[in-house]
Amino acid sequence: MQLPKAHMFDQSGQWIPLKTYDDFDNGLGELIDLWSSLDKAATQQRKQAALAHYKADLEAATLQWADNKAKSKKYAAIAQELAEFEEVLVNGAGPEA
């Protein structure tokens, strides 16, 4: 499996800060794809770095829009999806269906 076409890192490997709702919405999918990747370039260090940067950017955006109820709800929904993803990372996918 190839590394996802992530827009999270530039060509030199530096994190590209997420700024818009669409950045976060698309970025969550890219983050999940990165964690699911079997490509050798998707190292544990790269995965952890992406997760840490994503969480930090999301926290900053949540604080920035705390007074805007509509935007605050949108970012809270992404935060909930991220929390669910992190739970799967910690606890696994759960019982087989």
**Mean pLDDT across residues:** 87
- Pairing-aware structural class of the strands and helices? mainly alpha
If helices are DSSP runs of H or I spanning 4 or more residues, what is the number of helices? Answer: 3
> How many strands in all?
0
Order of helices and strands: HHH
Query: Main sheet, how many strands, which sense, barrel?
Result: none
Helicity, as a percent range: 55-70%
Shape: globular
The fraction of residues assigned to DSSP E strands is under 5%
- For the record, give the distance between the C-alpha atoms at the N and C termini, rounded to a whole number: 25 Å
Radius of gyration: 14 Å
| Residue windows where pLDDT falls under 50 for at least 5 positions | 1-5
Can you describe this structure?
The structure is a single chain. With 97 residues, the chain is an all-alpha fold. The protein has a domain at 21-85. The chain contains 3 helices and no strands. Helix 1 runs parallel beside helix 3 (69-91). The protein is globular and about 40 Å long. The model is unreliable at 1-5 (pLDDT under 50).
